[in-house]
Write a structure and sequence with these properties.
The protein has 283 residues and is mainly α. It is 60% helix and 8% strand. It is built from nine helices and four strands; from the N terminus they run ββαααααααααββ. The strands form two sheets. The chain has a two-stranded antiparallel ribbon. A hairpin with an 8-residue loop joins strand 1 and strand 2. Helix 1 runs antiparallel to helix 2 and helix 2 runs antiparallel to helix 3. The longest helix has 31 residues.
Amino acid sequence: MNSPDFPSTSISPNTSISLHPSHPSHSSKKAVAVTDTPRDTPREHRPDDPRPERPGQPARGGGKFGSALLIHVIAPLALFYGLRWAGANQFLALLAGAAIPAAEAVRGLLTRGRAGGLQLFMLGAMALTVAVSFVSGSPRVLLIRSAWGMAALGVWMLVTLVSRRPFLYEAARVVLDEPKQRTWEGNWERYPAFRRLLWMCSAFWGAACLVDASLRIVMAMTLPVDLVPVLDDVLLVVTFAVLLLFQRVYGRACLRRHGLRRDGVRLFPVAAPPGAAPGTAAC
């Protein structure tokens, strides 16, 4: 008796087999559907996998900066001048504007469950400023609350100079995604000139914040009260413009002097000073 001929089918280890009825009236008969789906196929190319491929986590620095700008600059300024336009006195308008960043700071403290020394210092300074302003009844005391914040930031930046990593190293890691963080860490480990650059720029940032705080106190005590809030924000823009300009000019000069070139966060050795490998000498 001749056996029926069956088509030959080769099944590889990566072959998936699905069984389904070939006809609704013959449920006992099964048809074999053979499909080759390589297991190493990327997920986004597998039509039978509904899960999306997960890209690397993007940097979220822009969103954080925009939120901080809204809470600490735009909203308090708009509320102050809105209340003044509505006829509120200077003290009440300044107090309402100060309540927005204070409420956000408290919310962040409750959400995270803990706060660093800088956050606690700023909250304490803000509470002290409000208490003193109630006692004195002077709106000028409320105006110096931004000076406390810049002073705290400047002192913190200078304190990081005696730690293992300066301020700018840690600040950059907060806004970089994981691949760029690894590149940033590699630059720190590989190039002494890069380490020296971050130390020097962090020191300049700290000193600039202290100068900014001093100017804010002078403005609060001498200029018309209604003019100071907007001048505070103008001074903030000028301070950060100076900081970024210094960091750009000095950073490029330092890296070029030591045979390094920057592309994004990646450093490339291009030439070395006489008798030294690229990036090994200090700025």
